[in-house]
Design brief:
The protein is of the alpha+beta class. 30% of the residues lie in helices and 26% in strands. It contains ten helices and 17 strands. The strands form four sheets. Strands 10, 11, 12, 13, 14, 15, 16 and 17 form an eight-stranded mixed beta sheet that branches. Strands 5-6-7-8-9 form a five-stranded antiparallel beta sheet. The protein has a two-stranded antiparallel sheet with strand order 1-2. α4 packs antiparallel against α5 and α5 runs antiparallel to α6. The longest helix has 19 residues. The protein is elongated. It holds the Pfam family SUFU. InterPro entries: SUFU-like_domain, SUFU_N, SUKH-4, Suppressor_of_fused. It comes from Nonomuraea purpurea. This is Suppressor of fused domain protein.
């Protein structure tokens, strides 16, 4: 069975989640499941099969009551199907472990409610994690092989997993069907995207930070997939994830990763602030929808007005000016370069001045003590 260290080696340190033991035990989980949840961990995302990145209803690690085939039961939601063209129904299922039996089920969802569709995926939480781990390990160990070349590895893997949870690999089950597909197909090459390079750039800038990170649940090509907030001295650094090719899914030869940029924004932060202002996150998300719907990426020197104002009704900021982020600049990623473009809130008067002079001339007045322009809706 996979250990926590083995999961981390495959999924990355940030790609494996463990829970607080006291909290888990207080819910009455079986001892074996407590060990998995608290010591081994659960992958955040595993290929096309599973992801914890759920934006309601029924987010990962929430407790719910639902009906199985023969009785009501209490579950811990683990996640959903991973997004992508190969999984059109990702949002309509939730993986969940039942507290009493330890079985992992696939629960159907429609209109925000559980349906009568309930399927047993694995007989134990331990085997569910092992199946996710070994499937991902297959993808990394034999990447770039044809179906014929991959078959011996896959057949051996099926035999080993059957010894662990034979019922899960029956012909009419989820895993049984998936591994039948594995036997008939090759394993594609792994292309690394911009994600690791972005993480490295942010870690270098704020090495002691513990960022907040959210999935927007937006499909690729429709907007930014994720947003993050980083605590800096006196301000929040907000970052988009998804204008660049985060996970190497695009087959482009343009010299840039995806559209070649990510947006940032800095807003004031009080010492005890636990969350950045919602308007700022929503602004970045709106900018993502604008770019992908209109086809106009942002670059250094761009400007635009906004509908209404940034922040509360009392705010005088109703436009944005864009410059290359003075701290993050441009980085090299496996798929090409990524430039960080910072969006700064300005007034209509400052917008007119920027058009007459330059963005840099106006934003120099908004630069804080750390040399970066701040969007302060109270000024």
């Amino acid at each position: 069975m996979a250990t926590h260290a083995e999961l981390v080696q495959v999924f990355g340190a940030d790609g494996v989640i463990t829970l607080d033991r006291a909290d888990v035990e207080s819910h009455g989980f079986r001892p074996d499941d407590v060990e998995v949840l608290c010591s081994v961990g659960i992958p955040v995302t595993a290929g096309i099969v599973f992801t914890m990145k759920v934006n309601g209803p029924y987010e990962a690690f929430t407790m719910v009551d639902a009906e199985t085939q023969d009785r009501p039961a209490r579950f811990l939601i683990l996640g959903k199907g991973a997004d992508g063209e190969q999984n059109a129904y990702a949002d309509q299922i939730r993986y969940a472990v039942e507290l009493e039996s330890g079985n992992v089920f696939m629960l159907g969802i429609e209109d925000g409610k559980f349906t009568s569709h309930v399927e047993t995926v694995n007989t134990t939480l331990n085997s569910f994690v092992e199946f996710l781990y070994r499937s991902e390990l297959r993808r990394t160990e034999i990447a770039g092989t044809s179906a014929e070349e991959a078959r011996p590895y896959t057949e051996k893997l099926i035999a080993e997993l059957k010894s662990l949870d034979e019922r899960a690999l029956a012909p009419d089950t989820f895993w049984g069907g998936l591994f039948e597909v594995y036997l008939q197909t090759g394993v594609p090459e792994i292309r690394e995207g911009s994600r690791k390079a972005i993480v490295a750039a942010l870690d270098a800038l704020l090495p002691d930070g513990q960022p907040l990170h959210w999935s927007t649940d937006t499909p690729i090509g429709k907007g930014v997939q994720e947003l993050s907030a980083h605590r800096a001295d006196g301000h929040w650094l907000l970052v988009t994830w998804g204008f660049s090719d985060l996970d190497g899914v695009l087959d482009l030869d343009t010299g840039t990763s995806g559209l070649g940029f990510e947006l940032t924004m800095r807003v004031p932060r009080e010492e005890n602030d636990e969350m950045p202002p919602g308007w700022a996150l929503q602004t970045l998300r709106n900018l993502g929808e604008y770019v992908f719907s209109e086809g106009y990426p942002f670059a250094d020197g761009h400007r635009m007005g906004v509908a209404g104002q940034l922040g509360p009704e009392s705010s005088r900021l109703n436009a944005l000016a864009f410059i290359t982020d003075p701290q993050l600049g441009t980085i090299d990623a496996p798929g090409g370069r990524v430039e960080f473009i910072t969006a700064v809130g300005v007034t209509r008067e400052e917008l007119a001045e920027a058009k007459a002079t330059s963005n840099d001339a106006v934003l120099a007045r908004l630069t804080g003590e750390h040399g970066v322009p701040i969007t302060d809706v109270t000024r």
